[in-house]
Design brief:
single chain, about 450 residues, alpha+beta, Helix Hairpins, Heat Shock Protein 90, 3 domains, six-stranded antiparallel sheet, five-stranded mixed sheet, 8 helices, rod-shaped, binds adenosine-5'-diphosphate
Length: about 450
Amino acid sequence: MNRKTINAVIILGFLSLTSILIIQMFSIRKTLEIQQRNIAIQQREDSLNMVHFTDLSYISLRNVLQRIRKVNKDSSDVFQAVKQLETNYFKVEFNTELNAFQLQSWLTREFYDRNLHHGFQFGIYDCFDRTITFSEFIGYSGTEFKTDTTRKVTTPVIDWDNDGHYFTVYFPDAYEQTKTLKLEESYSPYTYLSIIVILVLLFFGYTMTVIFRQKRLSEVKTDFINNMTHELKTPISTIGLSAEMIMRSGFDKNPDKLQQYASIIYKENKRLEHQVERVLNVAKLDKEKINLKREPFDIHELIQEAKDNFEFNQLKQDGEISLSLNASINEINVDPVHISNVVYNLIDNAIKYCSKTPNISISTQTEKKEILLEVEDNGIGIKRENLRMIFDKFYRVPTGNLHDVKGFGLGLYYVKLIIEEHGGSISVKSTFGKGTTFSVRLPNT
Ligand code: ADP
């Protein structure tokens, strides 16, 4: 599969995963909304039922009380005598003696007629000596009320009045607690299934990301090995050629030639050494913690020195580095070796990745408690899609099979590592074909 097809597969996979996720979340939200609405309806129904239940209980108990008073020829008010202590617990006051069996038969009759088909516990209290003179549970079998001696119900505790008698009626099974259906209790299996699907999808997405990250890493490593092989092959073959020339020719008459070949071998060997050193250094930085040797260091002096060196050795007449060093404090507490490498790396890149006469501007300024160092070039620039990866280890902007600019993709990785180790940050802005600006912020400590 070529890169384009892989990218298309990734994008399509990502889009379908995202749409399934969105659809799932949308359907969960819809289900929850419907459930919430159902709960609200249920609660409203419950409260209506409760009002109805209370009304019927009041009517029944008043009727029973009226019968008691009629039998006892008591004409006092029945209205205030019935009190609701709790949703399902009533108290009825009366003045005279009461026959428990008579009361039971009136209560069952009234409750039956009014469709109050709930088992109930009734108790008769004598408040003069604070005793319960009678207590019984009457169950409802589905067709009739019957004394149920097997069921023991504890009625809620009430305050005893000081005088009079009363009886209480407690319906333990009717509206014992307000039935508030909690949302999580009402989740349907479908909701759980949707949540599981979402979790599976997220896990799948995560696995895909890991796989693609690994794939990219292995690509970057392959690129690095190819690049490294190429970089090493050139000096090795030059050294080989020069050595062969020395072996073949007699240099008695021409010692200058010998000197020339020897110097080529020497230079190429140095180059090789330098390349290997760079790779090994970064590998070492990865393994060991960087041990910064901080000391007051004049950053302006460093920049001036780097400018002179680059102009003398690399640019010669062909290019310019202009400076605008405005930072009010130029002496900062940093590791001179590492920070010099950072500055040299950035300027080196600015020259390397430039296809016209390099025109580089380096500036410094003080910003709050930081020193801002910017290296701006008029080079080839970096496309937006490559920009976010340039600080990754071994990453080089793909240029097909062209190896016209040498490097291992380690320079900016090293630069970022060092800057962050100093407590600073680095950012980059680039316009493809126009140039790039690297901004380094170092704490002014
Ligand atoms: P390299 O050894 O390849 O130069 P770096 O880590 O220094 O490695 O840079 C990573 C990549 O970022 C380079 O391969 C190059 O494509 C891009 N790059 C770095 N600096 C610049 C710049 N100033 N202008 C354009 N491209 C740059």
